[in-house]
From TrEMBL:
PANTHER family: METHYLTRANSFERASE (PTHR43542:SF1)
EC number: 2.1.1.171
Pfam families assigned to the protein according to its UniProt record, in alphabetical order: Cons_hypoth95 (PF03602)
GO terms assigned for molecular function: 16S rRNA (guanine(966)-N(2))-methyltransferase activity; nucleic acid binding
Keywords from the named record: Methyltransferase, Transferase
EC top class, as a word: transferase
Name listed for the protein in its UniProt record: 16S rRNA (Guanine(966)-N(2))-methyltransferase RsmD
Disordered, as annotated region: 1-22
Gene behind this protein: rsmD
Keyword Transport attached: no
NCBIfam families in UniProt: 16S rRNA (guanine(966)-N(2))-methyltransferase RsmD
Source species, domain of life: Bacteria
Amino acid sequence: MRVISGDARGRALKAVPGTGTRPTTDKVKEAVFSMIGPYFDGGQVLDLFGGTGGLAIEALSRGMERAVLTDTDKKAIDTIRQNLQVTGFADRAEVYRNDASRALKALAKREVKFDLVFLDPPYKLKVIGGLLEQLMQDELLAEGATVVVEHDAEDRYDDPVGELAPLRRAEYGDTAITIFRKG
């Protein structure tokens, strides 16, 4: 795993020890950023299932200003912090050990708005629909925000959630990406 493009291009990222985390492959990451970017002029990114931090770090490398990353696994949190240090983005990121729904509740109290959100939960959890609703209900998305959902290719997310409309879907083996846009 590496940073594909931008300020930290080519920097290697550490994987989370063990088998509990399924990092987004470089191929899928490259495809995602070609669909949503590829570069940004500031903005805030939220990665609710941070894992290695690779998606948010890629977004920072490509021009996002700030990032918030969460995960429930201590090993993942430690890995995210190490990867932020290696890429030089530690001062532009906040990292929290929390589950996604509780993290969204805490962020809603801060009245922060995100321009880009990554949702890549373990496929077995089946929480994507509820988290999309919570993002809208808690008004955490800026106008024109993009939400990137990585999920099992067997699952479909074809319906709008409030102002959040599905734009595009792509499959890569067992993995699918669905892109939503607000407004």
